[in-house]
Amino acid sequence: MEQARNHREDLIELDKKHFIHPTSSLKLQQQQGAPFIFVKGEGVYLTDISGQKVLEGMSSLWNVNVGYGRSELAEAAKEQMEKLAFTNSFSSMSNEPAILLATKLAEITPGNLNAVFFTSGGSESNDTAYKLVRHYWKLKGKPDKKKIISRRRGYHGVNIGATSATGIMPFQEMTTSLAPDFLHVEPESTKSLLDCIQAEGANSIAAFISEPIQGAGGVNMAPEGYFKEIRKICDDHDILFIADEVITGFGRTGKMFGCEHYDVVPDLMLLAKGITSGYIPLGAVALTEELHKELVELSSDVLLHGYTYSGHATACAVGLKNLEIIEREGLVENSRVMGEKLVNGLKKLKEKVEIAGEIRALGLIGAIEIMDRNGKRFDKLIAPKVSAEAAKRGLMVRTVCFEGKDTIVFAPPLVINEKEVDEMLRILEEALMAVQRRILNEAI
After folding, report:
1. How far apart are CA 390 and CA 383, in angstroms?
2. pLDDT computed for residue 444 by the predictor
């Protein structure tokens, strides 16, 4: 026992000294060390180095769709690595897993999204899409069509272009120099988009980008009819529509892709996260048949865009096996069914817990807004306290706290079952009640 404790302490010190953590407080890392050092995952659970077991209510970063510990995915990687781990895809060279995964994505994505460019993740998929649409308009003889419009509170990644498209101000304020030609409109207003187009001129706008459901912005749902109207506006003004399905793709919402809830097909669809359930880095940009054909017909030179690992053979082999698991085990339907159970449980929880406010959810992505009994936000952030209490009790959730939001968000693995949903609801209720008692005691 003493040896294990010393090993953990040694790792924490090494972590502080050598590992700069993404999207983390540098000061807290040095002061408190890693809250968890995970060593094992199985199903919806993670186990840390001290033996504590937690239910992963976020699928890590919205992405471990098929759950942890899937030996099939390890075997797929091993088998491919033993044959051909990697070879580059430049100069039209190819490999079998990349061809087969591109073909599979063309089959399962909606409408005529039939051609795929591979990346290593969501941020790269975003930056790739911005370059491709600008390149497209340049080839069409319209080089001034280069502006990208996105929605406020939308999240699109942390590369310089993706950061510039992201409509969450703290991400933009982190840097001193954003990329030019990115604009933001109000997230629930099609009029705001029309006003922006009229002010800037449609001949200067390359594309509009949006998540079907805003994830890191607080799990925000679009108003009814919003995306139908967006599709029409883009068509009417000769603007390409990019759907960022990095979080919402591969069953997260109870359909294979979030756009399917709104019966719209984008010109480009951005994919990552659930494409391999996080087992290996991979992302993609899917283009419509028409857009791909035009790029081919208009191009007279090399497409000077590509990453070393575009079409990585091992990553694509894992992606293929991951999609096989999602389909074979009916995880898209399970997401819908377990999502309904989770929402019904949250509605009952809301009746018992005074600080549980608005509930927003679709499939297995959701949020609880923290509010007082009058529907007003508290004068201090409460959601992080709830998250901390949940973690103590064995449940990992995240919080979104900006622009007046005080929100708990969750997105458990799509393999979650009824018993595990009940466990998640029980811990959430206990954590909310513990914080509520503290608030009431402070008020006395």
Report:
1. 10
2. 41
pLDDT digits (tens, 9 = 90+) for 359-416: 999 999 999 999 988 888 898 999 999 999 999 999 999 999 988 889 999 999 999 9
pLDDT of residue 1: 66
- Flag whether the pTM goes above 0.90: yes
The 3-state secondary structure of the chain reads CHHHHHHHHHHHHHHHHHCCCCCCCHHHHHHHCCCCCEEEEEECEEEECCCCEEEECCHHHHCCCCCECCHHHHHHHHHHHHHHCCCCCHHHCCCHHHHHHHHHHHHHCCCCEEEEEEECCHHHHHHHHHHHHHHHHHHCCCCCCCEEEEECCCCCCCCHHHHHHCCCHHHHHCCCCCCCCEEEECCCCHHHHHHHHHHHCHHHEEEEEECCEECCCCCEECCCCHHHHHHHHHHHCCCEEEEECCCCCCCCCCCCCHHHHCCCCCCEEEECHHHCCCCCCCEEEEEEHHHHHHHHHHCCCCCCCCCCCCCCHHHHHHHHHHHHHHHHCCHHHHHHHHHHHHHHHHHHHHHHCCCEEEEEEECCEEEEEECCCCCCCCCCCCHHHHHHHHHHCCEECEEECCCCCCEEEECCCCCCCHHHHHHHHHHHHHHHHHHHHHHHHHHC
